[in-house]
Amino acid sequence: MKFEISHLDKQSKARRGKLTTAHGDIETPIFMPVGTAGSVKGVHQKELIDDIEAQIILGNTYHLYLRPGMEIMKQAGGLHQFINWPNPILTDSGGYQVFSLSANRKLSEKGVMFQSHIDGSRHFFTPENVVDTQRIIGSDIMMALDECTPYPCDYKYAEKSMHLTHQWLKRGIEHFDKTEPHYGFEQNYFPIVQGSVFKDLRMKSAEYIAGFNRAGNAIGGLSVGEPVEMMYEMLEIVNNILPHDKPRYLMGVGTPANILDGIALGVDIFDCVMPTRNGRNGMLFTKKGIINMKNEKWKNDFSPIDPDGTSFVDQYYSKAYLSHLVRAKEILGAQIASIHNLRFYLWLVNEARNKIEEGTFTIWKNQMVKELTNRL
Amino acid sequence: MKFEISHLDKQSKARRGKLTTAHGDIETPIFMPVGTAGSVKGVHQKELIDDIEAQIILGNTYHLYLRPGMEIMKQAGGLHQFINWPNPILTDSGGYQVFSLSANRKLSEKGVMFQSHIDGSRHFFTPENVVDTQRIIGSDIMMALDECTPYPCDYKYAEKSMHLTHQWLKRGIEHFDKTEPHYGFEQNYFPIVQGSVFKDLRMKSAEYIAGFNRAGNAIGGLSVGEPVEMMYEMLEIVNNILPHDKPRYLMGVGTPANILDGIALGVDIFDCVMPTRNGRNGMLFTKKGIINMKNEKWKNDFSPIDPDGTSFVDQYYSKAYLSHLVRAKEILGAQIASIHNLRFYLWLVNEARNKIEEGTFTIWKNQMVKELTNRL
């Protein structure tokens, strides 16, 4: 995997670059739609490519491991083949969902035991076997197994957890480096910085992670409930330490404003369920602010969903119609909102790239962040 | 509205024709996807046009009347505008859903009182006001208010109910003929034959309906649980009486085999929720038979969904992938199955039209009916 930075913003840490993977190039900064169980909810693969212009999607190892399972995944020839997706895929390690979705989990030095949220069956994830699983999935970028600490989290727990994550990382890297891809194309392994909201832990963790000099690095354990200023403080500290010439991935973040602020702090890659999950609940993100389709005021607003929008749904359907579909819980409402929001996120990072190139990123970003958080 | 029959099958009552409406031509025999509450569930309007090649869709007056309601519908300029659908629309009267979905309904000579299944609010449908409602919706073809008798139904009830339907029809027609379209284009009013499974009642009803000589006629109260042979027997009786030169619409029917047999008995128009509702449950209709995507055997069948299929989903996705999506209750599973099934239904009536034109309909139909009912 190759990462080339083509432009640096002078007023911030923002950078424009290109990440080259076995399944094509990714322009950074980039946002990854979340394809939880092998599908970006409510969106056809060809809509992701043609309408949303997604360059990379994320798959959840926890979900794919439980269903369809690795036997099917292997027979399919990996996730790209299984879902017919030609572009890059990143997978998480599954750790996050083990902590947020499964039942009766038991954490030990060796790994984490848990029960499936689907059928209660018992499973064990280790730093090594999540590499094996992600080898079978065949993601272009796989993630290390980590413990994502909750917020708030006391210092002692955060420190202990960080050390566990570091130990797991070492084992994961060793295992990754001595195993081979199944499908003939290159895979990459990203370590994850933890340390909760404690500066010294974040510094230690970033230094530890930087020491491995992997093709890319991730920042986890943020946007879990802490004030946004704390997240930005941690990002600043961590990005000062993580290698400049390697892509930085901020996991699970966030709102459009978070993404622009994250870019300003030197982040290159983002993912979040917000555009699809909030979309299914009738929340739309636009240039001018946030629209809650359940508000009475949209019921008889027959103007296009988003006159500034760049996806086909924006001009094709009216706010009144979408508002009706959301109220009536029609599948099409979820489809339209998901396409709109995802396209908006992809448009936003595309604009950010252009502004970085033009040298106007910071002014634009400061103006946009104000507008993006309006409630329309 | 103009109806021209271009070809008659020599071995059956099948005919090929063209129905001309204010929103364009409809080639018959035709199947109408059901767009219950202003959306064919899980399908974009442009997919209906480009991929499924739907020529007309059906809207449910009961659903649209309750939500978004007629105030919004009027402001939108009718259903075509509201949902951005340029082609013809047929609406039912709402009667069927009052009997199947609402609570505490009370039938009287004047009309039917019911409580909304959404919020329990009380409403009253009359033969006159469902015309007014369908004027506001602006459907190209509107239906008379009728009582759809259940099966089984005793003779006395069926007879009484038929007389009520006939009285309502007279009032509905009078009201229709003295009111005007709201949006400047022509609307049509179809009466409905009832009479349960009793030959003499069906004959009486067909004669009564034929006497009005409307632009088209419908047959209701079938496919409600009676043996299929009984339905075909009733169809034969009724179609011998309904005007030959007017389109005949068999309401709420049915399986692909029902549709072909209905065409052979002289039916021109069909609608049914099966392709979408059964699709959402993982049932696919194909040329070679029915596929239940929940069967274990499809879990690792990586062949295309339907090698003979004519929609983009058929070649794009595999059976194993769709089977996974259905099991995981992913929205995309419902989307794919709905597009496949609707396209299959539209392909089927298109083939029927071609075979009628070629003079090979009956041989083809008899062969197809056998294959369509296979369980794959």
Number of strands of chain A: 17
How many H/I helical runs of chain A? 15
Of all chain pairs, the largest interface belongs to:
A-B, 41 and 41 residues
Strand content of chain A: 15-25%
Structural class of chain A: alpha/beta
* Distance, first to last CA of chain A: 42 Å
Commentary on this structure:
- The structure is a homodimer of 376-residue chains.
- By secondary structure, chain A is of the alpha/beta class.
- In chain A, the strands form five sheets. Chain A has a five-stranded parallel sheet with strand order 4-15-14-13-12.
- The first copy, chain A, is globular, with a radius of gyration of 20 Å.
- The model of chain A has no long low-confidence stretch (mean pLDDT 97).
- Chain A has helices at residues 45-50, 61-66, 70-76, 79-83, 95-100, 127-137, 155-178, 199-210, 228-241, 256-264, 274-280, 312-316, 319-327, 331-358, 361-372, and strands at 2-8, 15-21, 24-28, 30-32, 57-59, 89-91, 103-107, 112-115, 122-125, 141-143, 188-190, 192-193, 217-219, 248-250, 269-271, 283-286, 289-292.
- In chain A, 43% of the residues lie in helices and 18% in strands.
- The first copy, chain A, contains 15 helices and 17 strands.
- Chains A and B meet through helix 3, helix 4, helix 13 and helix 14 of A and helix 3, helix 4, helix 13 and helix 14 of B.
Question: Can you tag this structure with a few keywords?
Answer:
homodimer, 376 residues, 5-stranded parallel sheet, 4-stranded parallel sheet, 15 helices
What is the strand and helix layout of this fold?
The structure is a homodimer of 376-residue chains.
Chain A: E1 2-8, E2 15-21, E3 24-28, E4 30-32, H1 45-50, E5 57-59, H2 61-66, H3 70-76, H4 79-83, E6 89-91, H5 95-100, E7 103-107, E8 112-115, E9 122-125, H6 127-137, E10 141-143, H7 155-178, E11 188-190, E12 192-193, H8 199-210, E13 217-219, H9 228-241, E14 248-250, H10 256-264, E15 269-271, H11 274-280, E16 283-286, E17 289-292, H12 312-316, H13 319-327, H14 331-358, H15 361-372
Parallel strand pairs in A: 4-15, 5-6, 6-10, 10-11, 12-13, 13-14, 14-15
Antiparallel strand pairs in A: 1-2, 2-3, 7-8, 8-9, 16-17
Helix pairs in contact in A: 6-7, 7-8, 8-9, 10-14, 10-15, 11-14, 13-14, 14-15
